[in-house]
Write a structure and sequence with these properties.
It is built from 14 helices and 4 strands. It has 340 residues and is mostly helical. The strands form 2 sheets. It has a two-stranded antiparallel ribbon with strand order 1-2. It has a two-stranded antiparallel sheet with strand order 3-4. A hairpin with a 5-residue loop joins strand 1 and strand 2. Helix 11 runs parallel beside helix 14. The relative contact order is 0.19. InterPro entries: ABC_transp_permease, BCAA_transport_permease.
Length: 340
């Protein structure tokens, strides 16, 4: 039973990332009708926002410390972060320690700005083009962004630790009399993902802006005839989707050290999640994300990989084939989406 629960927790952890990326993809497709293959790159950029903030907060200057000497008795020069000199050693160390959560403050405006630039500068010119054209241009954009990150940050993964207070493990089964140690930061990531997903759904469901967007997703022409600038709202939704992907990346940085190809690693799987959930269905994207994450977790167990070698690499695609053969629109797909 303990092993079963741990595998479910592992699946929910990875499923959180799938669900957040797929949610942003579905927001873009549902509003603009664009198949955005650059969405994984937005996830990557979010992770590197955490790296950037960590590097900025660790910028240091050298001072002579008379209390430390080398083997000749000369005072040593030590590096002191500017943050510690500005806010004091205790507060400065705490700020550096919490660099990943603080990166959220940078990630939201940066990702929304990047989303606006992408949509206004490039993607708007492909609204009326074939989906194949959209895939080609956005995939090319993803490669460009990937190479830019590689040029400035290098090809090697960059360790980005979580705050010291959130390192280590917690016994999540203590309340039920079970011994279930699990990494604290992974629990934080799962709760954070639920919060973001809940905020997006609440925004669409309970705000006037969200209701107009949902109406535009259902019947864009009619909403436009009412005198509402639905294109502007859809542009804002593209920026929000970019921010969701960025937030998924920044909080995932301590789990998987950021590298320049992490966006591509998640992109294909996230598109499979979107297709399984149903193109244009936000609940379907979230449901499929968590479901496939759990299935992938169980397929990665020693028993599964020994019985069926390589099953952990193909389980998601096998499920996608089965779902699409039985439900061509996906689990919760809407009629008419990507259908002639």
């Amino acid at each position: 039973m303990d092993g079963l629960i741990l595998q479910i927790l592992n699946g929910l952890d990875k499923g959180s990332a799938y669900a957040l990326i797929a949610l942003g993809l579905t927001l873009i497709f549902g509003t603009l009708g664009v198949v955005n293959f650059a969405h994984g790159a937005l996830f990557m950029i979010g992770a590197f926002c955490a790296v950037t903030i960590s590097k900025i907060l660790n910028i240091s200057y050298e001072v002579v410390d008379p209390n430390q000497t080398d083997f000749l008795g000369n005072p040593l020069k030590v590096k002191t972060p500017y943050v510690e000199s500005w806010f004091g050693p205790e507060m400065g160390t705490s700020i550096i320690d919490w660099s990943v959560p603080l990166a959220i403050l940078l990630t939201i405006p940066v990702m929304m700005l990047i989303g606006l630039i992408m949509e206004r500068g490039l993607i708007k010119h492909f609204y009326s083009r074939e989906h194949a054209d959209q895939i080609l241009v956005t995939f090319g954009l993803a490669i460009v962004l990937q190479e830019i990150i590689k040029y400035y940050f290098g090809a090697n993964p960059i360790q980005t630790p979580p705050p010291e207070a959130l390192q280590g493990v917690a016994n999540v089964g203590a309340a039920f009399g079970m011994d279930l140690p699990y990494p604290i930061w992974r629990i934080v990531y799962f709760c954070f993902s639920l919060g973001i997903i809940g905020a997006v759904f609440a925004f669409l469901q309970f705000t006037t802006f969200g209701m107009v967007v949902r109406a535009g997703m259902a019947d864009r022409e009619t909403v436009g005839l009412l005198g509402i600038n639905i294109d502007r709202r859809f542009t804002i939704m593209f920026a929000i989707a970019a921010a969701v992907a960025g937030l998924a990346g920044v909080m995932y940085a301590p789990i998987n050290p950021p590298n320049y190809h992490m966006g591509m690693d998640f992109l294909v799987l996230s598109f499979v999640v979107v297709v399984v959930g149903g193109m244009g269905s936000l609940p379907g994207a979230v449901l499929a994300g968590f479901m496939l994450g759990i299935l992938e977790s169980f397929a990665s167990t020693t028993w599964a990989t020994t019985t069926l070698p390589g099953i952990n690499q193909i389980i998601i695609y096998l499920v996608a084939i089965i779902v699409l053969l039985t439900r061509p629109r996906g689990l919760m797909g809407r009629k008419g989406v990507m259908e002639e």
